[in-house]
Automatic annotation (TrEMBL):
Entry-linked InterPro entries: PUB-like_dom_sf, PUB_domain
Protein name: PUB domain-containing protein
SUPFAM superfamilies cross-referenced by the UniProt entry: PUG domain-like
UniProt-listed Pfam families: PUB
Bias (Low complexity): 123-142
Composition-biased stretches (Basic and acidic residues): 143-164, 174-186
Species whose genome carries this gene: Entomoneis paludosa
CDD domains xrefs: PUB
Length: 211
C-alpha cells in the first residue's frame, strides 16, 4: 500500500465533519498508543492483538478508515482467540517493518496533536490547570511563611559566606605553601592570637634551650 493511500485513510477521518473533534481525538490517541507499543516491542504478543470486545477498540474500529488502516498498513487480521472472542491480530509469521511502523506512529501522533489542540475538553482542562497554578503561586504569604522564607534566605547566605571563606583559606594555604618552597627568606607570620597577646609563639626549645 502506497504512502499516499495510507495517509489518505487517516486524513479521511481527521477531516470528517460528521465526526466530533472529541471522538476523532480519542480515536487517534488510541491509534497512537497501539503504534507506539508496536514500535517499542514489535514482537510482543500482547501488542500484536486487539480485542474487539474492548469498548475503546470498538469505538476506534467503527471508523472504517481506521480499521482498514490497521489491516492494510500494519497487518492486523480479523480472527478469534482461544476463548472464541473476535480479535484483530498480527500473524506470528509477519515481521513488522521498523521504518514503516515509526512513520505510521509519527503520522498518527501528529494528527492526534492537531486534533487535541482543537478539542474543547482538552483545551479547557489545560486552561484550568494553568489558571489554578497561577492563582496558587500568586497567593499572599502569611507572616509565618514570610519569617520562614527570610530564615531560609539568611541560612543560605551564611552557608555561601562560609563556603567562600573556606575557599579563600584554601587559596591562601596554597599560596603560603608555594612561598615556603620557593622563598629562602620566608618566615611564618604572627598568628592573630599571638598578635593580640603581643607575643609570638615559641617552642619549648626556644624557651628553655637544649637541656
Amino acid at each position: 500500500m502506497s504512502m499516499y493511500n495510507r495517509h489518505t485513510l487517516l486524513s479521511t477521518l481527521e477531516h470528517d465533519v460528521n465526526v466530533s473533534v472529541t471522538e476523532k481525538t480519542a480515536a487517534f490517541k488510541l491509534l497512537q498508543t497501539i503504534l507506539k507499543n508496536l514500535v517499542a516491542s514489535p514482537t510482543e504478543a500482547k501488542f500484536r492483538q486487539l480485542r474487539l470486545s474492548n469498548p475503546k477498540i470498538q469505538s476506534m474500529t467503527r471508523h472504517t478508515c481506521l480499521l482498514q488502516y490497521l489491516q492494510m498498513t500494519i497487518g492486523f487480521q480479523t480472527t478469534q482467540n482461544a476463548e472464541g472472542q473476535a480479535i484483530l491480530q498480527i500473524p506470528d509469521a509477519l515481521v513488522l517493518d521498523a521504518t514503516l511502523m515509526q512513520e505510521a506512529y509519527s503520522t498518527a501522533q501528529t494528527i492526534y496533536q492537531r486534533l487535541a489542540a482543537q478539542c474543547p475538553t482538552l483545551t479547557k482542562s489545560s486552561s484550568s490547570v494553568s489558571t489554578t497554578s497561577s492563582s496558587t503561586s500568586s497567593l499572599p504569604l502569611s507572616e509565618k511563611q514570610k519569617a520562614r522564607l527570610l530564615a531560609e534566605q539568611k541560612e543560605a547566605a551564611e552557608k555561601e559566606e562560609a563556603r567562600q571563606a573556606r575557599k579563600r583559606t584554601a587559596a591562601q594555604i596554597k599560596i603560603d605553601k608555594h612561598v615556603r618552597q620557593t622563598d629562602e627568606n620566608w618566615k611564618p607570620s604572627v598568628s592573630a592570637a599571638a598578635a593580640k597577646a603581643g607575643d609570638a609563639m615559641t617552642t619549648f626549645r626556644d624557651k628553655f634551650g637544649e637541656n
